[in-house]
Design a protein that fits this description.
Strand content: under 5%
Number of strands: 0
Helix content: 55-70%
Number of helices: 11
Largest sheet: none
CATH superfamily of the largest domain: Tetracycline Repressor, domain 2
CATH topology of the largest domain: Tetracycline Repressor, domain 2
CATH class of the largest domain: Mainly Alpha
Shape: elongated
Length: about 220
């Protein structure tokens, strides 16, 4: 028998495994109890409703992201896109690689459970996407990143990691889905730096224009 202090965690782990594989409606509290090695009565001692179990399980999926948000706060001299973008992509790739259930749980939340799905995702993903967007906005103002919509750029960067590996399987000759984490960070970083960072000629031209205006 599991220790009493371990029971809620075991229930949540079991719920994540089952909800992410079988969906919300395909998973019963009896299934969760069986996988957690507790009785169904015990499950209801900790969670009043099945939906409460789901939201707790979804929240647990975001635990790998929150501690690393500080990595997106640029330090003096270390705020260039060449440094920050790999950090952003590495964080997202790690989340997708080591917490694959998170993406599936988000999909289940929006497709099957709804209700608090948007609120829950905003609570847990909002700080990450806000940090990325603000960083992009700041560097657009500094001329280090092209003047494009930062919210769309943020969504594009996230989708690159979460959706692209699966979609790439339909593209003949595309091998990105087979890259390991390090290779993926390198490939995505090269793409996004090429897409977002002005080339040296553009920077030089911009600098010349600013000097002419200030003269």
């Amino acid at each position: 028998m599991p220790k009493k202090s371990d029971v809620p965690e075991r229930i949540i782990r079991a719920a994540v495994a089952l909800f992410s594989r079988q969906g919300y409606h395909g998973t019963s509290t009896r299934d969760i109890a069986r996988l957690a090695d507790v009785s169904e009565v015990t499950v209801y001692r900790y969670f009043e409703h099945k939906e409460d179990i789901f939201w707790s399980a979804l929240a647990s999926c975001f635990t790998t992201i929150k501690p690393r948000l500080s990595l997106l706060n640029p330090s003096p001299g270390l705020d260039s896109p060449e440094i920050i973008l790999p950090r952003v992509l590495s964080l997202l790739i790690d989340a997708a690689t080591f917490s694959p259930d998170m993406v599936r749980m988000i999909a289940v939340a929006f497709v099957e459970v709804r209700g608090r799905a948007e609120e829950a995702c905003r609570e847990h993903l909002g700080p990450l996407f806000t940090a990325i967007t603000r960083y992009l906005e700041t560097n657009i103002e500094r001329g280090k990143i092209r003047n494009l919509n930062p919210a769309i750029m943020t969504a594009g960067i996230a989708l690159t990691v979460f959706a692209q590996p699966e979609l790439s399987t339909f593209i003949e000759g595309c091998r990105l889905s087979k890259l390991d984490s390090r290779q993926a960070v390198e490939a995505y970083t090269a793409f996004w730096l090429g897409a977002l960072v002005p080339v040296a000629q553009e920077r030089s031209s911009s600098a010349t224009s600013e000097e002419a205006l200030s003269a």
